[in-house]
Amino acid sequence: MIRERETVALPGLPVLIGAIALIVISVYEVIEGAREASGSAIAWWSIGLVLAILTLTGLFVVNPNEGKVLQFFGSYAGTVKHAGLRWANPLYTKKRISQRIRNFESSHLKVNDNEGNPIEIAAVVVWRVVDTAEAVFEVDDYNNYVKVQTESALRNLATSYTYDSHDDAQISLRGHTATVAEHLKKEIQERLARAGVEVMEARISHLAYAPEIAHAMLQRQQAGAIIAARQRIVEGAVGMVEMALDMLSRRDIVSLDNERKAAMVSNLLVVLCGDKSTQPIVNTGTIYQ
Question: Which long-range contacts (CB under 8 A, 24 or more apart) does 170-178 make?
């Protein structure tokens, strides 16, 4: 595996000024040599002119948050990151690699969740290149590599969780966005590490049931929500009835036999668990009439 090795290139401005000066002098001397018919002067200053022009080809510009990967006949020679006009061996090939922060939004993928329900899912990934050598030499095209591996990780994530769950202990795609985003970021980072890419953030940008089952799943989701709500209501109602009977007994407000306790429990559960408000009936006699 090839790791990034930062190298120092010469400042380009002095080289530029010297090369231009050499070109001007060489042209002048070649013209003077032609006037004086001096073949040796023309030859020497022509060589100087060629060298000056060749020197200019070694100049290159490095922008902020950018690296230039240098290669010498296929061998990795280092990466220049210092911004400004730089000069390196004219025989070096120079490949520009941006290290700025980028966003990638995946397409809407149709996959099955953990329960086999078809869903549509998409993600946004914030990433940047941190190792220019790995980005150039370890993968063929790091931009395409980021795209393919992100969608692959997103598919794997979708199959690991259910779309929705009414149980707080079970992680779902819709109900635990922070946990799911952290899992997605970790999985994408593991896949992109060998390409010299750092994943700064990953989150789900689109999540929905597939159109062909969206209506049915909406009804199922509503039914599940009603059942979960009813369960909470019943649990709370039983607790309130138990508390009421216990307080009546401890304070000795009224003495109830088992039959009257059952009637009271029935009435309280109807009041607490009913969908509609109940209408009270006032008993003007005794509790036994």
Answer: 173/113, 173/119, 173/121, 173/204, 173/207, 174/207, 177/203, 177/204
| Nearest-5° Cα angle at 136, 69 to 192 | 130
Average pLDDT along the chain:
83
Nearest to 131 by CA among 84, 93, 81, 89: 81
Beta bridge partners of 76: 71
Instruction: Give the CA distances from residue 46 to residues 25, 52, 90, 155, in Å, rounded to whole numbers and listed in that order.
Output: 10, 10, 19, 64
**Residue 49: per-residue pLDDT:** 86
| CA–CA–CA angle 22, 27, 30 (5° rounding) | 120
State the Cα torsion 234-239-244-250 to the nearest 10°. 160
Reported as a pLDDT band with limits 50, 70 and 90, residue 280 is low
Rounded to an integer, what distance in angstroms lies between the CA atom of residue 270 and that of residue 253?
A: 23
Residues 6+ apart with CB under 8 A from 12: 59, 60, 61, 84, 85, 86, 87
C-alpha distances in Å from residue 4, one per residue of 60, 67, 134: 19, 10, 7
For β-strands 10-11 and 84-87, DSSP reports them as antiparallel
> Whose CA is closest to 121, among 182, 73, 174?
174
Q: Order of strands, edge to edge, in the sheet holding 10-11?
A: 10-11, 84-87, 59-62
pTM: 0.68
Tokens describing residue 183: 């899992």
Q: What is the DSSP string of 149-207?
A: HHHHHHHHHHTTSBS--S-TTS-BTTT-HHHHHHHHHHHHHHHHGGGTEEEEEEEEEEE
Measured CA to CA, the distance from residue 268 to residue 234 in angstroms comes to: 11
CA distance 278 to 266: 13
